[in-house]
Amino acid sequence: MMVAVSTEAQDLQQTRVVVVGGGPGGYEAALVARRRGADVTVVERAGMGGAAVLTDVVPSKTLIATAEWMTLFEHAPELGIRPAGDARTMVEGESAAVQVDLDVVNARVLSLAAAQSADIRARIEREDITILVGTGRLDGPQRVVVEDEDGGTTTLDADVVLVATGATPRVLPDAQPDGERILTWTQLYGLKELPERLVVVGSGVTGAEFANAYNALGAEVVLVSSRDRVLPGEDPDAAALIEDVFRARGMTVLSRSRAQAAVRTEDGVEVTLADGRVVSGSHVLMAVGSTPSTAGLGLEEAGVRLGPSGHIKVDKVSRTSARGVYAAGDCTGVLPLASVAAMQGRIAMAHALGDAVIPLDPKAVSATIFTAPEIATVGYDEDQLKAVGTAYLVRTLPLRGNPRAKMLGLREGFVKLYAHSVTGVLLGGVVVSHRASELIFPITLAFARRLTADEVAESFTVYPSMSGTVAEVARMLHQNRA
């Protein structure tokens, strides 16, 4: 559905847009607004790219990419790869003759994050967008007050305001991070040495990704999950596979174990569980969710409605309850993904400046969990299809029969597709695989364009390729309609 909105015939050359927050939602919105002729100012206190670039997505995925090399190297002996020269000879079943220098790894992680932030800043400045370093808060719906590091203030009048302030790691009252032994995911990159025994509290996406990464890097990992299984919000088959992989790689997974407190000891940490058990480690990562960064911004005083969790309430074109005020990203609680934040920001500015927009459809968003193997999803899952009473077919095929997977020495993973049992339209999909983040795209495209399973099946794939399994599962969904 296309939505076109007038902006009361105001001259776009005179439209003043202030974006509070320079993360993906903020800087993408700024670029859209500037290209439509608006006068744009971005307020950011930490650095362009925000937490997504500096402390969250870019650093974590860089660390995970490093860990992925360790995972792939595990298969080296069976592929006939041995160290050359005077390197230690590997024998069958022996671990790879490599080790991780975490200080170097983290230095590279932070360097790449800083470089990405600088690239974004340069691009913003090329577009003649003003950047103010400081903390912005609303003084009514059409004014933003910016406080800089020295306590000085700048007042900006605005026709349109976008709030994109993100979120911060949630902290338990009895597990206060100290940046040394008790850590949030933003503090991990200060470690100089690999933790001997890392206790990860929380088995959602963040906890699972870091547990997987540090296990691959060589740390002993204990994953504390308050639920029956890891990744409780994901496809049950995918979550079960990942948990089996975790255990097979030596990770300790404690299910139905809620953490209540974490304290430092003389040479490590102790995590106390709700049932009285105590888990010891050298470090603990608290991955228990996030809190929207919306406090103290003058939002409610400006007429912006917040939910019980503190998230900003927005509609599908990113409008808040205050006229002229939009919001994007993790502060809205829609979906905690950089891609969603960016799309929300783009939609918000197009809508605010009178362009036609397609409202955000959360079901069309593809998401990936960067474990090894990765889990990527799009569309509806089985519980959702049952809940709405949709007639559907589901087919699953393991990747172990895929020729490309065999060549790469990959054994774990599958492709699962859902299709309407009458029309054949693709309703969703799950890919568990090496590079599932890439393999989900054709399924996302098919879902967004309402293609049928037959249309997917009839499209050519390269042989051999991992994507061949996507087409093969689509062929399994074919129904004879003669």
UniProtKB/TrEMBL annotation:
<feature type="binding site">
    <location>
        <position position="330"/>
    </location>
    <ligand>
        <name>FAD</name>
    </ligand>
</feature>
<keyword id="KW-0560">Oxidoreductase</keyword>
<comment type="subunit">
    <text>Homotetramer.</text>
</comment>
<keyword id="KW-0547">Nucleotide-binding</keyword>
<dbReference type="Pfam" id="PF02852">
    <property type="entry name" value="Pyr_redox_dim"/>
</dbReference>
<dbReference type="InterPro" id="IPR001100">
    <property type="entry name" value="Pyr_nuc-diS_OxRdtase"/>
</dbReference>
<dbReference type="GO" id="GO:0050660">
    <property type="term" value="F:flavin adenine dinucleotide binding"/>
</dbReference>
<dbReference type="InterPro" id="IPR036188">
    <property type="entry name" value="FAD/NAD-bd_sf"/>
</dbReference>
<keyword id="KW-0520">NAD</keyword>
<feature type="binding site">
    <location>
        <position position="136"/>
    </location>
    <ligand>
        <name>FAD</name>
    </ligand>
</feature>
<dbReference type="Pfam" id="PF07992">
    <property type="entry name" value="Pyr_redox_2"/>
</dbReference>
<feature type="binding site">
    <location>
        <position position="61"/>
    </location>
    <ligand>
        <name>FAD</name>
    </ligand>
</feature>
<dbReference type="InterPro" id="IPR023753">
    <property type="entry name" value="FAD/NAD-binding_dom"/>
</dbReference>
<dbReference type="InterPro" id="IPR016156">
    <property type="entry name" value="FAD/NAD-linked_Rdtase_dimer_sf"/>
</dbReference>
<protein>
    <recommendedName>
        <fullName>NAD(P)H dehydrogenase (quinone)</fullName>
        <ecNumber>1.6.5.2</ecNumber>
    </recommendedName>
</protein>
<feature type="binding site">
    <location>
        <position position="289"/>
    </location>
    <ligand>
        <name>NAD(+)</name>
    </ligand>
</feature>
<feature type="domain" description="Pyridine nucleotide-disulphide oxidoreductase dimerisation">
    <location>
        <begin position="365"/>
        <end position="472"/>
    </location>
</feature>
<dbReference type="InterPro" id="IPR004099">
    <property type="entry name" value="Pyr_nucl-diS_OxRdtase_dimer"/>
</dbReference>
<dbReference type="GO" id="GO:0003955">
    <property type="term" value="F:NAD(P)H dehydrogenase (quinone) activity"/>
</dbReference>
<keyword id="KW-0274">FAD</keyword>
<feature type="binding site">
    <location>
        <begin position="202"/>
        <end position="209"/>
    </location>
    <ligand>
        <name>NAD(+)</name>
    </ligand>
</feature>
<feature type="domain" description="FAD/NAD(P)-binding">
    <location>
        <begin position="16"/>
        <end position="345"/>
    </location>
</feature>
<comment type="similarity">
    <text>Belongs to the class-I pyridine nucleotide-disulfide oxidoreductase family.</text>
</comment>
<keyword id="KW-0285">Flavoprotein</keyword>
